[in-house]
Amino acid sequence: GIFRMKDRTVAANQERQLMMNWKYFDESNDYIKSRVSWYTVTLRNADQASRVAQAIDALSANSDHETKSQTESAFQQAFVKQFADIGLIVTSIMAAVFFTLLLLTGNTMAQAVRERIPELATLKTLGFQDRTVLSLVMVESMLLIGLGGLIGMGLAALVIPAVAARSGGLMPTQTVPLQTWLVAFGLMAGIGIVVGVLPALRAQRLKIVDALAGR
C-alpha cells in the first residue's frame, strides 16, 4: 500500500521510501541473510538519548557486530559527509567572507575618517578630548558592523525555518539557536573593534593646526 506522513515537514523525504516485510525479504536474500543495517529506536525523553545509546552499544561491545548508536541528526550529518565535508566547505566560505568583510569595512572606516578630518579638527577646537574623538570613531565602526550583522542574522532567522520545512527532515534545525546569536554578537563586537581601531587612533592623534590647514 501507499502511506502518507501526518507530519508534512518530513513527508517529502519519508514518502519516497519503499517498505516491505523483513521476513519475506530475508527469505529471498542469500547475500546478507539475517542481517540488519540499522534499528530505529523512539525515545519518550530526548534528553536520555546519550544514555540509551551507550546502553545499546554495550550489548554488542567486543563482538564481531558492534553497533554505533546515534541520534537521527547525527546520522544524517554522517550520511551527508559521505558525499562532501560540508563543515569544511562552510568554514572555508565563511573565512573568505570574514576576510573580505574586514577589507571592505576597514577601507570604509579609513575613508570616512579621511573625509571628516576638518570636522574632527573642529570638534577638538571646540574642546572635545582626544579620547572622546577616539570613542566617536569606534562607536561608528561598531554601529556599521552591528547593523550589517543584525540584518544578516534577521534574514537567517527568516530563511532557516523555511528551508528546514522543505528539507524533508534532513535539516532538523528550525530556528537560529541562542548560542548562535551570542556568537554573532561577539563577532560583531570583535570585527567592529579590529576595523575601527586604526582609524580611531588616527583621529585621536590628529593635530588641529595640521588638519585645518589640510596637511
TrEMBL record:
Q: Name one GO cellular component term.
A: plasma membrane
Tell me the ranges covered by the ABC3 transporter permease C-terminal domain, including all copies: 93-205
Q: Which UniProt keywords apply?
A: Cell membrane, Membrane, Transmembrane, Transmembrane helix
Please name the Pfam families in this protein's record: FtsX
Q: Which residues cross the membrane?
A: 86-106, 133-160, 180-201
Q: What is its main location?
A: membrane
Topology in the lipid bilayer is annotated as: Multi-pass membrane protein
- Compartments, as annotated in UniProt: Cell membrane
- Its name, as the record gives it, is Membrane protein
